[in-house]
Structures are given as C-alpha cells and as structure tokens.
Amino acid sequence: MSHPTTPLPYDADIKAVPKTSGPINLLVHITAKPGKEAEVKKYLQGVRDYANSDKEPGTLVYNISQSNAGPETYIVYEIYKDEAAFHHHTDGATFKELFSKAGELVEVFHSRWYTEF
C-alpha cells in the first residue's frame, strides 16, 4: 500500500540562491516531527554521504549536527562552490527522496543563505 506524501514547502529563502562569484553557504535548521527522529536522521545521513562523495564535486562542505538538548533538532551546514553546485545537489536522488517525504517527517525547516567575504 502506498502512503500519500505531503511535500514540505520550501522555506522562501532557500530559493533565493545568492548570485556571487565565490562559494555560497547555507545553514538549515530542521526539527523532526515527534516519533520521526530516527527516520529523519537516516535520510539526512544518506544525503550527507552522497553530498560528501565524488558525485557532488561542487559541494565543498556538508555537515550535520544533532542537538544535545534532544534528538529531534538538526543543523545542516553546507558550502557550495557556486549556484550550479547547489542545484546539482538538489537534483540528486537522495535529496529528492528526503524531500518527497519531508512533509510527513519534518515539523520545522528553516534555511538561510550566507556569502563569504
């Protein structure tokens, strides 16, 4: 039996990829829904492993930290060579798989772009 999924709406800021000639940084705060912490962690680990592989050469840094206050909160710190590298990351199968289920797994998704100076 297939379960309907509700896609997680993108935080408005994630679509506003900075136009710059240098690396771009993304900081994402994710809070799993109650009871979904282990599943969110599994998906994040898959995205991280793919992002840190040779399949994403434009992903310079992809780190995930879990809150010491509780297993439901994560911070994802990402650095991409440029906008094309970010789009390559979001076009990947592991990223798409996470976001196809995010609506049922994730309670909070907040992102913010930063540029290096």
UniProtKB/TrEMBL annotation:
Entry GO MF terms: catalytic activity
Start and end residues of each ABM domain: 24-117
Transmembrane segments: none
Source domain of life: Eukaryota
Name listed for the protein in its UniProt record: ABM domain-containing protein
